[in-house]
């Protein structure tokens, strides 16, 4: 793992990914710029996945996709993006199982592949921090806790499954403010999908997240739940595709899009 | 009490108030039009009250006031309004105590009096109902439950006191949606001020409201609390003014302003 300066601009971070100088987590890098979840699929399932995103915009907010199959650029997110090299670290999935982690997929890339870039919670976390709201996973310097729920996604072809949510404990006044702020950003998960009792959405033990790390919940906190970008990864696993690529969690595609550009109001 | 047809337009309702044909509650009347809380004060305290509203816009959203002391019109809310006669029923307060209820204050009106018209929860309740959200006090056909809290208002001269809140129990998804919808309407109390544990804001027994009626709270409901227009009435009582006038709760000034006009986005 090689770190980079936090004030590097997105294109400089991508250049360092491209020549293998950088392969670490992107949290806190390129402040103000949108970072993306990435899913790369062969053509026989890509249109099903596109529809899965369209039908489930809160967990799967599709920001951009390959202009055409086999084209590794993502011009909507940056002029120079090459999705085969510009993500710090990739996961290779075979038959629905994690098969390898790598810093480059140039050798694997096929002429019928489509890349999907999905909005990520880093964008709304920045907006919440800017508003003076404390975000527990950032305060405690851990990954946000994430949970499988009983809330079904709308299915599309092989892509099925329940929504995964991330949880941030907030005092009531901050929870209300967070709903207002996140409502401005529908393309990065938008407003929370639930708050209060975790059991109502099928979470039995809030102290034991299915992904990420537990965080402290203080006496006056309300657990607030957002649709999470791990949802498509879970749907991908369930689809048991012969081959699929995603980013390694936390190792996001850093784009030239500004978070502020995503605000709808 | 004389009822009127629910499809009467605001000016027709006011005309019937004016000639004493109507003196009942206005809930459900003139759908789509703004109804107001009313406070009428002599000049020595009026500017303090104006500042109290300015400093506490959530409980005291000032929509309009007399163009000048002694002028009984409210041209911002309707061309023909005469605040001395156009409210269905008034309360007369002497030394901070309810002294009388009446349908007309023309004989009491003084040349230095100022009338204040404040936004009312009927406006946001309409927006919530339009969005398909069930409002318990409407379903159960009772007055909304209201509670004294431990949240202090910013004081102004003789006007001091804690905020009064109204409570509507909502399932989590509706609570989130209600926060979004009410955020569009800051001039009628705006977004909720609290949700979840009532004790955090000094409410010991949710089943025993200080004003209005209790409502059912179902297993998946979260209590959601809005700043309430009874707050200024409580501040008025505490001020122990020799003389003050308000509307009788539920008997609102019906205006020509449309609720939709109040939406800020």
Can you walk me through this structure?
The structure is a homodimer of 265-residue chains. By secondary structure, the first copy, chain A, is an alpha+beta fold. Chain A has 2 domains: 10-121 and 240-258, PSTPO5379-like, CATH 3.40.1640.10; 123-232, 2-Layer Sandwich (PSTPO5379-like fold). Chain A is built from 6 helices and 11 strands. The first copy, chain A, has helices spanning 10-18, 43-55, 121-130, 136-139, 172-183, 231-239, and strands spanning 33-41, 62-65, 90-94, 97-102, 114-118, 146-152, 162-171, 194-195, 221-227, 244-247, 253-258. In chain A, the strands form 2 sheets. In chain A, strands 1, 2, 3, 4, 5, 10 and 11 form a 7-stranded antiparallel beta sheet that branches. In chain A, a hairpin with a 2-residue loop joins strand 3 (90-94) and strand 4. At the A-B interface, helix 5 and strand 8 of A face helix 5 and strand 8 of B.
Please write out the topology.
The structure is a homodimer of 265-residue chains.
Chain A: H1 10-18, E1 33-41, H2 43-55, E2 62-65, E3 90-94, E4 97-102, E5 114-118, H3 121-130, H4 136-139, E6 146-152, E7 162-171, H5 172-183, E8 194-195, E9 221-227, H6 231-239, E10 244-247, E11 253-258
Antiparallel strand pairs in A: 1-5, 1-10, 1-11, 2-5, 3-4, 3-10, 6-7, 7-9, 8-9
Counted by DSSP, the helix tally of chain A is 6
How many strand elements of chain A? 11
Shape of chain A: globular
Element string of chain A (H = helix, E = strand): HEHEEEEHHEEHEEHEE
CATH homologous group name of the largest domain in chain A: PSTPO5379-like
Give the number of domains of chain A: 2
Oligomer state equals: homodimer
State the helical fraction of chain A.
10-25%
Measured by residues with Cβ under 8 Å of the partner chain's Cβ, the largest interface is: A-B, 18 and 18 residues
> Which percent range describes the beta-strand content of chain A?
15-25%
Could you give the distance between the termini of chain A?
38 Å
CATH class of the largest domain in chain A: Alpha Beta
**Content-based structural category of chain A:** alpha+beta
């Amino acid at each position: 793992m090689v770190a980079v300066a936090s004030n590097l601009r997105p294109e400089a971070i991508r250049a360092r990914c491209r020549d293998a100088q950088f392969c670490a987590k992107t949290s806190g890098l390129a402040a103000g710029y949108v970072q993306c979840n990435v899913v790369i699929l062969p053509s026989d399932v890509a249109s099903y996945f596109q529809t899965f995103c369209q039908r489930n915009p809160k967990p799967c907010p599709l920001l951009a996709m390959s202009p055409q199959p086999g084209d590794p650029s993502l011009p909507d997110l940056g002029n120079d993006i090459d999705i085969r090299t510009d993500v710090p670290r990739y996961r290779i999935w075979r038959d629905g199982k994690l098969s390898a982690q790598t810093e480059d997929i140039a050798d694997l890339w096929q002429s019928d592949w489509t890349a999907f870039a999905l909005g990520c919670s880093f964008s709304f976390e920045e907006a919440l921090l800017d508003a003076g709201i404390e975000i527990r996973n950032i305060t405690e310097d851990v990954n946000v806790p994430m949970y499988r729920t009983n809330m079904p996604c709308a299915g599309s072809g092989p892509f099925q499954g329940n929504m995964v949510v991330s949880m941030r404990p907030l005092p009531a006044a901050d929870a209300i403010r967070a709903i207002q702020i996140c409502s401005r950003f529908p393309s990065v998960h938008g407003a929370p999908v639930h708050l209060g009792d975790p059991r109502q959405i099928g979470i039995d033990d809030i102290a034991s997240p299915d992904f990420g790390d537990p965080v402290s919940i203080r006496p006056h906190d309300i657990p607030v739940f957002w649709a999470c970008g791990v949802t498509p990864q879970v749907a991908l696993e369930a689809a048991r595709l012969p081959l699929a690529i995603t980013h390694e969690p936390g190792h996001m595609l850093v784009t030239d899009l500004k978070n502020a550009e995503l605000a709808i109001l």
